[in-house]
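REVIEWER CHECKLIST
Item 1: Sequence provided? yes
Item 2: Single chain? yes
Item 3: Sequence as submitted:
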Amino acid sequence: MNITFDAVPIIADKITGIGWCEVGQTNAMARLFPKNTYEYSFFTSRKKSRIKQAEKFSVGKISLNYSDFSGYIYRGLSMFFPLPYSLFFGKKSDITHFFNYIVPPFVHGKKVVTVHDMVYKAFPDTVRGRTKFMLETGLKKSMKRADRIVTDSEFSKGEIIKYFPEFSAKICVVPCGVDTERFRPCRDPILIRKAKKALKISGEYFLYVGTIEPRKNLQRLIKGYYIFCRKAENPPKLVLAGGKGWLYDDILKLVKRLDISDRVIFTEYVPDEYMTPLICGAVAFVFPSLYEGFGMPPLEAMACGVPVLTSGEASLPEVVGKCAVICNAYSEKSIAKGLLRLYSDKKLRLELSEKGLRRARQFTWEKSAEKLYAVYREIINE
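Item 4: Structure as written out by the authors:
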């Protein structure tokens, strides 16, 4: 087969979970099934940095097919006019997979789209206006164009069917994986100290990694942490690591209002070289999110052997199983209780560390790629 992967999520300056999901699945597929031809397609907008970014992930097995036209202009125009995608990227592909919700018009061959979640329907107030508009105007058309809709969890499959029951027969669940070469226990204290110094962290800390935005439930996490600090002796700091997303001002203001600015550290985007040592240096990883299509960060923390506190919402129980402390996402007291339990019980932390490592091994990119490849084979044979 000639297989094309739309590379928009991986050419960004700061790659999010959607981009890392594409990297994991496409690289594993190219290794496992080398008889096919693979390419990344993308608009460069005349930025050479995007070509270099795609080359970094092509691992010598995935060629590049790019256009110097502006992707921003193309996406804007194609929302209102049927500007053919094949006009820019040709008609040689048997399958083209779009990993970020939107399938443009007139794509040659079979089409697959990944719809990660329905947060814009379930929690519309937590989604950036621009993103909400794109999904409201384009997602239904995308799912109609697609031969298959891939999603990350059984929870997300149920959510898509809830809002778009007419597409239920097209939906396939392909769980994400975790890169255990990148995310694994770090036993070198020098690397951990180096990461902490670079990110201006001192002492013990709880760690959250993800976008700083409302649906991550960070206001309740901060309030729960404030309650915890009043009960714990020498409490660890709370490190919130991630780029600023949508409506983050209230999160920053809350820290100031509670007068814990000296205990809550915002690192913004964490460079790749520091991510694993940063996770491994934490007392525990905290992720009380309200809504996740899959929940990569807790899985990455478990792969590093770090105990996890997460909520029982959405897909998160599918990911962590019985290998984490589960809190009530809507209760600051429940979050505080979970933090105190993890901090005060070393035996529990060790137990969760071992269970988490075993759990993470069940989610490999190879398994994910095999399931995705089966989807490709199925639609080609139809």
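Item 5: Key structural point noted by reviewer: Residues 189-360 form a domain with the Rossmann fold fold (CATH 3.40.50.2000).
Item 6: Recommendation: ____
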